[in-house]
Each structure stands twice: as structure tokens, then as C-alpha cells.
Design goal:
Layout (H helix, E strand, L loop, with lengths): L6 H34 L4 H14 L1 H12 L3
Length: 74
């Protein structure tokens, strides 16, 4: 049996993934708004930081599911 296969952790983490999916949608909207601003005017450091935050929000469901399945012992 594979060590990384934890079906119980995956099932328990589904509600958290749904919340993370909502954060992903917010991240996509935020990235669409801030990415062109950061490209047009690189002196706006806050736009660049918001674009990086948006990218981390987009990656949130995968990060949350990996973290949650690691917390559940086999």
C-alpha cells in the first residue's frame, strides 16, 4: 500500500477544500485586477504584493488538502 494514499484524510478535508475554492475565486478576481496594474507601473509595490497574494490564494486548495492529509495518521 502506498504511504501517501490517505483516503480518510481526503474525505475529511473536502469541506476545507471547498472553503479554499472560494478563496481561489477571490484570488482569481484579485489577480485579474492587479496583474495589469503591476505590469503597467512597476513602482506600485502594493499591486505587486497583491498579485503575489492572489497567486497564493489560487494555489490554496492544493496546499490545504496536502496539509490536511499529512495531519491524519494512516
Amino acid at each position: 500500500m502506498c504511504e501517501d494514499c490517505r483516503p480518510l484524510g481526503f474525505l475529511l478535508g473536502l469541506p476545507f477544500m471547498l472553503v479554499a475554492f472560494a478563496l481561489t475565486l477571490i484570488g482569481i478576481v484579485l489577480w485579474i485586477i492587479t496583474a495589469p496594474l503591476a505590469c503597467c507601473c512597476p513602482c506600485l509595490v502594493c499591486c505587486t504584493m497583491l498579485a503575489e497574494l492572489a497567486l497564493s490564494l489560487i494555489k490554496a486548495p492544493v496546499s490545504i488538502m496536502r496539509w490536511f492529509t499529512r495531519q491524519i495518521p494512516c
